[in-house]
Amino acid sequence: MQSGLATMPAEELSAGKVRRRTPWSEGVRRLRKQKAAVIGGALVLLFILTGLFAPLLAPHDPIEQNLANTLQPPSAEHWFGTDDSGRDMFSRILYGARISMTIGIFSVLGSLVVGTLLGLIAGFYGKWIDTLISRIFDVMLAFPGILLAIAIVAILGPGLFNALLAIAIVNVPMYGRLVRAKVLGIKQEEYIMAARAQGMSQVRILFRHVLPNSWTPLIVQGTLGVASAILEAAALGFLGLGAQPPEAEWGKMLADSRDYITTAPWVVMIPGFAIMASVIGFNLFGDGLRDALDPKAQ
Amino acid sequence: MAPLLSVRGLQTYFFTDDLVVKSVDRVDLTLDEGEILGVVGESGCGKSVTSLSIMGLVPNPPGKVVGGEIQFEGRDLLKLSAKEMRAIRGNQIAMIFQEPMTSLNPVFRIGEQMCETIQLHMGLKKKEAKERAIQLLKQVGLPRAEQVVDEYPHQLSGGMRQRVMIAMAMACNPKLLIADEPTTALDVTIQAQILDLMKRISKESGTAIMLITHDLGVVAEMCHRVVVMYAGKVVEEADVHTLFSDPKHPYTQGLLRSMPTLHERKDRLDSIKGNVPIPAEMPKGCKFAPRCEHASEICLGEEPVLQQVGGAKPHQVRCWLFAEERPSHLANPEARSE
Asked: Where does the secretion signal sit in this chain (chain B) (predicted)?
């Protein structure tokens, strides 16, 4: 036992070094210990960077047609081949990442902000306002998400932005209920009573004390939510309700090329693979975050 | 001189679906400046609810202060607006809680939490507030105060956290500190330290303390005066020496008998038979009558009032045994109560 202590590095032993760790850096440390999360994080980063720098990376114009060069298999010139209009698949996948990441991330941000606000209000103030908000959530959750999204797009009209909006609206109850449940627990905590006893106002307690304690599940759910938002966006695109031609959106690409699945399988498989890889990336990363940030796992 | 705090006829009820629970039923309390008042009683006797009523923090619904007045420095706290009340809470009246492990927000550093209160009430700048926080932490005897301000609650032990809570409560030099079982969750050696600290602070800054506890040992150690509560009512009130040397109410006597003493060896501690009445079956007369060995017909039928007994010292008891106009069959109460 003694020798074990002796071999410990001195800085580990000095209280200061170990205690300085903030919850945040502690979370990052634990996240990095998980292989799946690191792979997920790498995929997420890859797709985000791809989306950001698509114009720099793409060797061809994603919407420029070349009818003399349709449905070419992958080659040195066209890494992922060409589609039925002779467009470079590789460039289209890169630009598709931009669209999918945008929809995924911004729709989640949208539903996160609105859902959190509604959930905070419902959970903290309770009474009739809670009943009202919770019943609206219940009604929204009674519809299959994609069906509701289709309905909303049908009202707003097809298009990328409307698809984003529809996905954001559909997912609000998920975050709202999560926050509400968390708030119901937190508001019973003694430190909230203590904050009251210190003379803080309701609004201050809500945003300064309750909200920061609800972050963890939101970060996790938000990350996983990006994955499902990407899928929903692809589904809307596939149905022709999201991105409009000639935009390079993965779901749309999948839909346009499904006639060629036997003759030119790459035009179908490559967008499908892109969707799958990005969704897996966010899911792995989200699961890793959950394990890293869950205080019970300590 | 008018007392610092004067609670008159306070009634705090909790409304459930099918009954009204009278958690605090016409309680009177006074507290002078710099005085330490013990409020004693077992769980559910209304001592915590009394303190929450004073703070204006009774959870509503289901609870509500339905009657009485709480005079603090000449103002009735029950008549103040929410905003005026907020200006008093944490500033002139501070409170510390039973569980030091959970009364600090886990996501903020100690300093951030302290500064928030200091900035809120004292209007100090961030840097000044931090200096004040460090100074306060030193005052409550925390070692490494400069480092502790930058640490998170989970890095501190229970005793340290309770010190932090006290430092936080003292941040704005309150006139009154309400301490709800401040040492119950701590182990005995730390308990003694925390009690000493509170005593010292009270003496140095002239802060009055309302100490809520079920621990008579703590009361003997700390308090000037004691109020014993049972089932939402004050049953006995006296200065600490009188209460321990000459307890009148059978409940107080029972409490004292159930305490271990150093001088005599008992195999078994005495206990008070029975349980606190549940709200739905509150006795009609004296609330303690069903458990009281001296109970007679009148005790079961009619509730006694709180009245002065004995000599010159203020000593009030709510018991038929000591009532001025007591029923004839209780001719010699002194003989019966030992």
From this structure: none
